[in-house]
Amino acid sequence: MRNELLLIITLLIEYTGVVLAYKFFGRNGLYAWVGLATVLANIEVMILVRAFGIEMTLGNVLFATTFLVTDILSENYGKKYAAKGVRVGIASALFFMLVSFSWLMYIPSENDVTSEAFRGLFAYTPRVIISSLVVFVIVQHLDVWLYHKIWDITASKFGNKTKGLWIRNNVATMSSQLVNAVLYNIFAFGGIYPQKTIIQIIVSTLIIYFITSLADTPFLYWARKIKYKKDSLSRQTVGKSN
User: What is the pTM of this model?
Assistant: First the structure.
């Protein structure tokens, strides 16, 4: 149960980290999180583990936090700021791909003891990141578009823009994650792992993404509460100054 416990703890820590980054650093904290998560998830994804009886790659939980970030930006600031978060992720992935590829071009010293491990880890980095980048662009824009499309529907149905948060969050994120799980694993790992393993990875990825989509809803409510509190304090400050 070690892997399973680690995954649960990781989910709670990383989702909490997103909200704390927002609490203490505002939108800039969310943009920084997207950049960091994009780079680290593309490294983690090369590690294959077995948990809950199936094979899965790491990085799924960390990548799922980027959807929480764009949903927070959509909910609290609007589509323009969410789209900026997507662009930050794209720029981070491109920069990491170029830098990591340059590492493999150096001729190591005869006294070097780490280059072989680096080459083994980052040999597939360009393919993984290109796959990640293409799919990231597709699914993140899909997530933002769906979020606001469903928001229009819930606002019309409930007569209130604040209601229906859990609906727009889960439907948009789960739909985007479905597309992400299928496209990314086929593009990134086709020909690397056996077909049976890839299918298992897709299934496990979908399970993880659906669970993480449900799990991130309380954190989205938490982030919205932080925004309301900041706005309330801002109004009080303006009122006192007047």
Answer: 0.87
